[in-house]
Write a structure and sequence with these properties.
Number of domains: 1
Oligomer: single chain
Order of helices and strands: HHHHHHH
Number of helices: 7
Largest sheet: none
C-alpha cells in the first residue's frame, strides 16, 4: 500500500513558520544527536564494565558513568520525543470531547506543560550552578564534579520548555506541531 503524496498545503502546515520554529527544530535535532551520543556512551561504559569483570579487573566509576549517560540520554531526548508524540497523552479523552472543549483542554494542557517545563528548567539550571559553586562531587568511586552530568539534565529541561513553547505557538498559529504517525496504529493511553 502506497502513501499518498503530500500536497503543498500539507507541507506548509507541517513546516515551522518563522524563525522560532526553525530554530526550535535545530535545537530538537541537536539535543537528539547528543542523546544518541549519550546512549552510545552508556553502552560503552556497560560493555567495558562487563568485559573488565570477565577479565578479572575493575575499572572504578563505570557504573556511575553509565548512569550519568543514561540520565543524559533521557533528558536530552525530551524535546524530540514530545514533537514525535511519544510522551503519554490522553487522546482517548480528548477524542470524546466536542471541538470547543477539545480546543480549551489542549490550550490548558500546553500552558500547564509549558509552566512545568519552565519550572523544571529553572530548577535544573540552578542545581547545576549551585553544584558548580559548592564544588559538589559524586560520592561514588569516580568523584566526578556533579555539575557536569547535571548539565545534560538542564539542557534537556530547557529544550523541553522550548518544545512546549513551540507547540503552544504552533497551536495558536493553527499549524501542526506533532509529527503525523502515518499508518501506525493510533496510540490510546
Amino acid at each position: 500500500m502506497s502513501t499518498p503524496a503530500l500536497t503543498l498545503a500539507d507541507r506548509a502546515a507541517a513546516r515551522p513558520s518563522g524563525g522560532f520554529g526553525r530554530l526550535a527544530g535545530l535545537v530538537y535535532r541537536g539535543l537528539g544527536a547528543l542523546a544518541c551520543v549519550a546512549m552510545v556512551g552508556a553502552f560503552v561504559a556497560v560493555a567495558t564494565g562487563v568485559v573488565s569483570r570477565l577479565a578479572g579487573f575493575d575499572v572504578p566509576g563505570l557504573d556511575a558513568y553509565a548512569g550519568y549517560a543514561i540520565a543524559a540520554a533521557l533528558f536530552l531526548a525530551l524535546p524530540m520525543t514530545l514533537q514525535h508524540g511519544d510522551h503519554i497523552r490522553v487522546t482517548l479523552f480528548l477524542d470524546k470531547l466536542p471541538p470547543r472543549g477539545r480546543t480549551v483542554l489542549e490550550y490548558w494542557s500546553l500552558l500547564a506543560g509549558l509552566a512545568l517545563a519552565i519550572y523544571f528548567a529553572v530548577f535544573a539550571t540552578r542545581l547545576v550552578w549551585i553544584s558548580h559553586l559548592t564544588h559538589d562531587i559524586s560520592t561514588s568511586a569516580d568523584a566526578t564534579p556533579l555539575w557536569i552530568p547535571q548539565l545534560a539534565m538542564a539542557l534537556g529541561c530547557i529544550g523541553f520548555a522550548v518544545s512546549f513553547a513551540d507547540a503552544l505557538l504552533a497551536r495558536l498559529q493553527r499549524r501542526a506541531f506533532f509529527k503525523a504517525q502515518g499508518d501506525e496504529i493510533a496510540r490510546v493511553e
